[in-house]
């Protein structure tokens, strides 16, 4: 899905205002689900990393970072995901197999995470949690699921992008919000802002969130391959929540871009897409550049010659993150 432009416009659009009653219905449905949903305890601690908007907040890097930190202390974290964009998630829970699974089967984000941490995909998060515990997990990290009451959470983290924030403030389909800020922040143990807070996320949290809600900040750090990519002329393409974030990261780090191509989030690259991208790059005497998440949706036999930028998170206050995780990592 590609987010409509009016979701993140600087001014409230007429279309957003017209659709706002439908957004209220969506919000009421989310609230009803929270109130009536049955909650199961997995028997091990669970950290939920979610957001209040429909994609593009940057939660997956947070999931990867938290799982790595827990593993570094001797814990056995497993990640639970719905496997968005894959077909396997609709069936019984299954563990992602890097040697055999594709993004079309399990989703692109689970493939990324599975490079460092065991991942289970399934539409039924409680069932996936049971499978993960049976498979050896002693702590769970939920990739999304903040609005899903089916699984008890010990720590709930809401992630927001500092540039796009909460968009126009309306709920789906009038805006990007999955629920009201007040309702969502009331269930959160912390808010994480990724990048510079140009939108005013911290101010919104102070206004609508509970008093004393911890606000942590982090920023994306490009991987070591940025030095090589900065020496070439590139055509960058991405099918993520906010492709322009990727393009900006490249430019901010000295990369020369002859062109860019944005696709919808989780876009399944066809042979035609890849052929067109290669023709464009060849015509400009440039190299293709993309993200790890996009690479997961490109067949292995079509990846040759494509530069990939990896990223990690740099926390401004790691001690605050350690305190936040203490209930699941004493």
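Q: What amino acid sequence fits the structure above?
A:
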């Amino acid at each position: 899905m590609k987010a409509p432009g009016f979701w993140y416009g600087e001014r409230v659009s007429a279309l957003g205002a017209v659709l706002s009653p439908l957004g209220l219905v969506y919000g009421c449905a989310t609230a009803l689900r929270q109130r009536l949903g049955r909650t199961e305890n997995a028997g091990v601690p669970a950290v939920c990393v979610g957001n209040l908007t429909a994609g593009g907040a940057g939660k997956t890097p947070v999931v990867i970072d938290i799982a790595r930190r827990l593993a570094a202390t001797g814990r056995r974290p497993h990640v639970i995901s719905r496997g968005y964009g894959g077909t396997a998630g609709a069936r019984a829970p299954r563990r992602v197999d890097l040697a055999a699974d594709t993004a079309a089967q399990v989703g692109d984000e689970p493939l990324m995470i599975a490079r460092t941490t065991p991942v289970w995909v399934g539409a039924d998060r409680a069932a996936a949690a049971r499978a993960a515990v049976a498979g050896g997990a002693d702590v769970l990290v939920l990739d999304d699921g903040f609005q899903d009451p089916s699984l008890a959470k010990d720590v709930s983290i809401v992630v927001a992008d500092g540039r796009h924030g909460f968009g126009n403030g309306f709920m789906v389909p009038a805006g990007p919000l999955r629920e009201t800020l007040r309702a969502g922040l009331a269930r959160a143990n912390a808010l994480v802002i990724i990048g510079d807070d140009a939108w005013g996320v911290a101010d919104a949290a102070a206004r609508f969130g509970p008093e004393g809600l911890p606000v942590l900040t982090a920023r994306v750090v490009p991987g070591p391959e940025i030095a090589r990519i900065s020496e070439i002329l590139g055509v960058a393409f991405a099918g993520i929540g906010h492709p322009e974030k990727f393009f900006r990261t490249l430019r901010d780090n000295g990369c020369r871009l002859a062109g860019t191509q944005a696709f919808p989030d989780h876009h399944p690259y066809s042979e035609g897409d890849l052929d067109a991208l290669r023709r464009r790059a060849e015509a400009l005497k440039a190299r293709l550049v993309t993200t790890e998440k996009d690479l997961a949706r490109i067949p292995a036999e079509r990846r040759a010659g494509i530069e990939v930028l990896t990223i990690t998170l740099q926390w401004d206050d790691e001690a605050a993150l350690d305190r936040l995780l203490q209930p699941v990592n004493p």
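Q: And what stands out in the fold?
A: The longest strand covers residues 215-222.
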